[in-house]
Structure of ROK family transcriptional regulator:
Amino acid sequence: MPRRTAATLATSGEVLRLIRSGEAVTRADLGRVTGLSRPAVQLRVGELIERGLVVERADAPSTGGRPPVRLEFNAAGGVVLVAALGASRTRVAVCDLAGRELAGRDFAIDVEQGPDVVLPLLLDTWDDLLGDRPREDVKGVGMGVPATVEFARGRTESVRVMASWTGVLIPPIVRERFPVPVLVDNDVNALAIGEHRGVYPDLDDLMFVKVSTRIGAGVIAGGGILRGALGAAGEIGHIPVRDGGGVLCRCGNVDCVDSVASGTALLRDLRAAGKDVKTIADVTALVRAGDAETMATVREAGRRIGEVLAGAVNILNPSVVVLGGDVAEAFGPLVSSIREVVYRRSTALATRRLRIEPSRLGAGAGISGCAVMVLDSVLSPEAVDESLAHRAS
Ligand SMILES: [Zn+2]
């Protein structure tokens, strides 16, 4: 067995991880868990306290004698800036280091207006929401955008869907105003991360399907987000359905599920059938009123989505499929058709314990997912050690 050397001793970043996860809450715990000497524990804890990442509380229950000082992760020790961009709605927020939203604002903005319009709006809104707070408090930025993203570089990739954003490297633009780590991911990945961490933290395999203006999925596999080679994992919207009728999709292919069953497709088909529907809310009203033709169109869309999801379930074998997005949230008949087809078409083994559930966090999952994404990165032991070293030098 290799001897424990100074190089393998727990760093301040690892000590923070132990405190943050609750694995060690006193200096004595830390000594026991890490094998560090008392002075070494003291040094690391002192550094973290000085940095505002850890606070001491003297309120631990006493078993007689002096109660040990409890160490707590200081969620108020900084903030992260987050933005969940949707095709037609965007939420911008400031969160604490536990991912709780401190202030936020919603915008009805068309992302197709492009980065020159949207990014300055985000930056100004964060500035506004921060108010008098010192800008050194900002530890990172997390964003979800409705496009395929090459995650490592924060570069938007999808040429056909968010054309004005093609090839845009978002992080350098954000860093001009806020010189901190900037993480950008696909919007549905952010929803999947948020719903996973917030509602199903004990499950390792989850698929989040967003049915809204567009259709997409975010996949949690083995406990982490599955991004694929170029960030395009989970792009189920452009899988074709059978007998779709030859609908040309904006991606150039024919009968993609997105082109026959998304919110956009529903509105188009209902209008073609003579219904006066401008928004998803109009469709909801017709469903509530029990309009037979609308119900049939919605059910058909559900079957189409179910067909594609059944294939995805066979490949990924998730424990839970979460259905979110305003279309899924508004239509009971759509969700029941999806369920029916997935259970009928997927293999018995893949569906034996499969749950299909509506999103519990709704649009809020986007903001919390972006916060989790950036916090996991900036509070990782490596990142904390690097920033402490940077500061010391
Ligand atoms: Zn397509």
Q: What stands out?
A: The chain has 15 helices and 14 strands. The CA atoms of residues 116 and 229 lie 28 Å apart. The first helix runs from residue 12 to 20. Residues 238, 249, 251, 253, 256, 258-259 surround zinc ion (CB under 6 Å).
